[in-house]
Amino acid sequence: MDYDQECDVLVVGSGAAAFSAAITAKEKGASVIMLEKGSIAGGTTMRSGGGFWTPNNRFQKQMGIIDSKKDATQYMARLSYPQLYNPDDPLLGLTQNDFDLIDTYYDEAQQAVKFLEDCGAIKTINEINWTGKPQVDYMDHLPENKGIRGRCLYTQNKEGKLSYGGELIKQLRSWATSNNIPILTKHEVKHILRNAQGEIIGLEVLKDGQDTLNFRAHKAVVFGSGGYTHNTKYMLHFQRGPHFGGCSAPTNTGDFIKMGGEIGAKLGNMAGAWRAQLILENAIKHPEGVHNIFYVPGDSVLEVNKHGKRIMDEKRNYSDRAMTHFVWDPQYAEWTNMLVFMIFDQRTATLWQGFAPYPVQGTEAEHIITGDNYEELAKNISSRLKKLAPHTGGFSLSPKFLENLRETIDRFNRFAVSGKDEDFGRGNFNYDREWTTFPPTISGADWPPKDSPNYTMYPLSEKGPYFAVILGAGTLDTNGGPVINKYAQVLNNFDKPIPGLYGAGNCIASPTANAYWGGGSTIGPALTYGHIAGLNAVAEPVKQA
Amino acid sequence: MDYDQECDVLVVGSGAAAFSAAITAKEKGASVIMLEKGSIAGGTTMRSGGGFWTPNNRFQKQMGIIDSKKDATQYMARLSYPQLYNPDDPLLGLTQNDFDLIDTYYDEAQQAVKFLEDCGAIKTINEINWTGKPQVDYMDHLPENKGIRGRCLYTQNKEGKLSYGGELIKQLRSWATSNNIPILTKHEVKHILRNAQGEIIGLEVLKDGQDTLNFRAHKAVVFGSGGYTHNTKYMLHFQRGPHFGGCSAPTNTGDFIKMGGEIGAKLGNMAGAWRAQLILENAIKHPEGVHNIFYVPGDSVLEVNKHGKRIMDEKRNYSDRAMTHFVWDPQYAEWTNMLVFMIFDQRTATLWQGFAPYPVQGTEAEHIITGDNYEELAKNISSRLKKLAPHTGGFSLSPKFLENLRETIDRFNRFAVSGKDEDFGRGNFNYDREWTTFPPTISGADWPPKDSPNYTMYPLSEKGPYFAVILGAGTLDTNGGPVINKYAQVLNNFDKPIPGLYGAGNCIASPTANAYWGGGSTIGPALTYGHIAGLNAVAEPVKQA
Asked: Would you say B77 and B102 are in contact if contact means Cβ atoms under 8 Å apart?
């Protein structure tokens, strides 16, 4: 076969996982080419908060925070595999490979970050939250967590400030470009090429949607591409319940599942995802946009289901919050919480304006449903649902919605006054108070209110208008796909590594399973296993074509 | 390559799907060999109720029951895809392939049964339930169902009586044997063999766990094997929540996922299963046994979760009931309903004795937890859970369990007196009254009680002892795997049929998705797509080896 281009290591994708693999391989002496399906580099990382969850990092050490291997791995194992977790078992109750991926993560995450810092690819910074403390994890209150803080790192920009995904990509891309790693956009990988021995030797690529090119990798191919959020058939056939989109790069259609499947890669964690609730109507109208509701901002705000009942602590993290949508009703054969309704008042909409889903006051926002009172609000939610019926299987409010909504709000208001959420413990957790509840977006607001014993809740105004937004489950991206081992090697269906094939990021079966350990739980493993893939790819023997 | 045996059509497995394919192919003139991994033929069908859900069957026609294509397909589509269902869409809101599988099912199910009857393989009979009516579906009350009865058929034995899975297998096997179809047990298929063009030409088989044999199929291979219930890693990596086993043949470890994956078959419906609650402790002790609780027998019986609260109408069907176990708690990162507790009194245990989970009175049954009163019962459940901790991630009762249990039982007792279950509508549905509630197992019992306005519920005795059984989610079997089209051809990852490869039964992505349409929803599609596979396999051209 003639090859259009050759190098030691081919890297697919251009998000955190892909850059980490490419930079590591390059720094270790390999020639590297990156292949990106989209028209710009950056993948889903570009759209993200850009944090990377890094246990036992140097900032923690500087601050005297002890983040031992035992504590960190117990937290990870417990959160990822609650039904298996067993602190008395050497593997903590997990399978060998699932355990190895977590065990290795603790050791290598900080090393991966250090490597990228040392070679000058990124500058990092830790997060101090608005209350002045190092940031907490998403399940900081679990006994296994030990309340350990400061695991989430970010990129530091030129001004020394904490920055998001755009800056992370900017720094990584800048290093790659300065070090002569070609980043070929609009290069869609179509097939994985193998030699007669079944070793991976390159990729078939469609350039600009028209030219088929063959790329030769002398040593290895690393997939650091995306999940399958934008493949509606895969979402239907693999996920645990109905989703309505997600904020991943629109090019994330599960290509590695298809191509890996073609050559016998074993799939894992296929019902897994990084999840969030999203604004249903906007996701239907603009599937490629970012409509995730990462936080439920403010205090006089709650969520109810079709029966008008609360189903969770609304200050929980986005990923676990979205999991509450997958409740099956065996009486009527429907997903009870498939759509939920975020309810808030004028004061909250004003104070936190501009923070989604609240529009800047005075601007139009079609996703907001309004009512002068609860009765009108319920009626208007109902009509809106009727319009959306072709997209939702005709999902509708139950006859008791209004009656229950009134009771629910009375009850919520009483909790807000007492400071104690007797149903879901809203505000009991550091995460609730320090991460998803934060001061108003408008300046000069007198907040928290002096009469609030628990500033995560405040009674809704006695007078309307009231507002509602329809939320459905969505993803940041899925995180199931071909299974890797602790060397980031992709395994075949008989648990043997496929020679020359590596994976990291959202395209593979995540070491996290279905858990979101803390801020940066997506990019942390992406950087880490990308780094491990890069190291091992360089050490591979040259394969015969 | 030398082949140890040759035929036109190789069939893998020996349950309903496999026999249907084998008998069809043989009757149409092909030479056929069946390969069974286990030491006896019959697969999961052998362990089953043996019904086959057959819309518009001849018994319905005889009884004047009109079961139109429109009504039946709308019911199937609505139940299988509630989030997509759209009656105004030509595909009812489904994808083309998912729709085709349902559409074809309506037409072919009755034909498949007729074919097997006409060739003398089986004799069939319809079910008249204990109330004297043709049997109802599992969601008979959905508007799309139109209350249509009589879709579930069974095998008729020599005495003209309705019979179960054992008899179905006996009849099928008898025909196969009489017609010279070898049924080779202890023949475990290990790999699918292909020629240079990628066409399927045979199977590599391990005989008696030691000899590797190559079987040549001139025309086609049909997989009619099982799901992956007994592969704990697959259960963990594909299912929507924690399961603790299932009643499928112990050999059902997802072999077709592995082998199909090896040759590039596309996977689908991977989070799907036929489900049931099962007796946790027995499933842990004897994973290969049948511990499913298909019905919650009796009237003074209910189920509560770790908070002591009811979560469903306990008279719903086993598959949907098990779905209630997958509720995620975003506050404490655990599966709230992972284990639930079936609570009942002495009267119920006596009246329905011998029907699982109630032991025959006087016999020992370790899975029964006893308490003289509710306090003692709660205490004893708690201690039992402590012992089980290594198997359950330390699942435990919440501190409010006893208080809530008392309230829950008071409330249930009030519902039983009024006849109206205000929370879940128990007894509102024909299915509840005619299928899962039935007269006592002991003769001469005066039942239903005259003071019961709704015989699905009766107040628990004011005096103990009381009893509990710990239930977890399990399967009859999973039903995800390689995707087929309406011709039962297995598709590759690019949606093209793999030449010469067919599939049916629990080993493939089920046409039902995650729904259980009615009695026989497992074996109906198995027989039907097995039959379709058999017909098309015979018509295949001979492949070059």
From this structure: yes
CA B121 to chain centre: 23
Which of B125, B115, B104 shows the shortest CA–CA distance to B51? B125
Contact B390 A259 (CB under 8 A): no
Task: Confirm if A505 and A225 have CB atoms less than 8 A apart.
Answer: yes
Spatial neighbors of B269 by CB under 8 A, at least 6 apart, are A237, B479, B480, B481, B483, B509, B510, B513, B514
- The reply to whether residue B313 touches residue A334, judged by beta carbons under 8 angstroms, is no
How far are the Cα atoms of B103, B225, B351 from residue A506, in angstroms, in the given order?
Answer: 36, 32, 55
**E strand segments, A366-456:** 369-371
A85 to chain B, any CB pair closer than 8 A? The answer is yes
For B516, the 3-state DSSP assignment is coil
- Closest A-chain CA to B479: A237
How many of the other CB atoms lie within 10 Å of CB of B425?
Answer: 18
Instruction: Yes or no: say if A271 and A240 are a contact pair by the CB < 8 Å rule.
Output: yes
Q: What does pTM read for this prediction? A: 0.97
Distance from CA of A82 to the nearest CA of B (A): 6
Report how far residue B53's alpha carbon sits from residue B521's, in angstroms, rounded to the nearest whole number: 5
Is this complex's ipTM strictly greater than 0.90?
yes
Phi-psi region of A204 (alpha: psi -120 to 50; beta: other; left: phi over 0): beta
Q: Is cis: bond before A465, omega within 30 of 0?
A: yes
The shortest CB-CB distance from B330 to any of A86, A266, A313 is to A313
Beta carbons of B412 and B418 less than 8 angstroms apart: no
Mean pLDDT of B224-244: 98
Yes or no: say if A440 and A209 are a contact pair by the CB < 8 Å rule: no
Tell me: the pLDDT tens digits for B371-397? 999 999 999 999 999 999 999 999 999
A400 vs B32: CA distance, rounded Å: 59
Closest CA to A280 of B99, B95, B83: B83
- Tens of pLDDT, residue by residue over B307-355, are 999 999 999 999 999 999 999 999 999 999 999 999 999 999 999 999 9
User: What gap in Å lies between CA A134 and CA A151, rounded to an integer?
Assistant: 8
Segment B116-135 mean pLDDT: 97
Q: Nearest to residue A393, comparing CAs of B28, B407, B82?
A: B82
Q: Which of A328, A400, A435 to mutate to test the interface with B (most CBs of B within 10 A)?
A: A328
Give the residue-averaged pLDDT of A485-494.
98
Residue B308 structure tokens = 């002591």
Topology given in CATH for the domain delimited by B276-475: Flavocytochrome C3; Chain A, domain 1 (3.90.700)
Query: Which residues in chain A touch residue B324, judged by CB atoms under 8 angstroms apart?
Result: 328, 330
Domain boundaries, chain A: 5-270+479-530, 276-475
Quick one: tokens of B516? Answer: 């259980």
- The nearest alpha carbon in chain B to A256 belongs to B493
* Contact in structure between A147 and A429 (CB atoms under 8 Å): no
* CB-CB contact of A326 with A239 (8 Å): no
Q: Which residues contact B349 (CB under 8 A, 6 or more apart)?
A: B358, B359, B361, B467
Dihedral, A451, A456, A461, A464 alpha carbons, nearest 10: 160
Same fold, B5-270+479-530 and B276-475: no
Total H helices, total E strands in chain A: 14, 22
pLDDT at position B1: 82
Angle (CA) B504-B510-A509 rounded to 5° is 110
Total length of chain B: 545
Instruction: Please state the separation of Cα A532 from the chain's center in Å.
Output: 21
Please tell me the CATH code under which domain A5-270+479-530 is placed: 3.50.50.60
- Rounded to whole angstroms, the Cα distance separating A26 from B235 reads 39
Distance between CA atoms of residues B264 and A218, nearest Å? 24
Q: Which burial class, exposed, middle or buried, applies to A386 when counting CB atoms under 10 A from its CB (0-12, 13-18, 19+)?
A: exposed
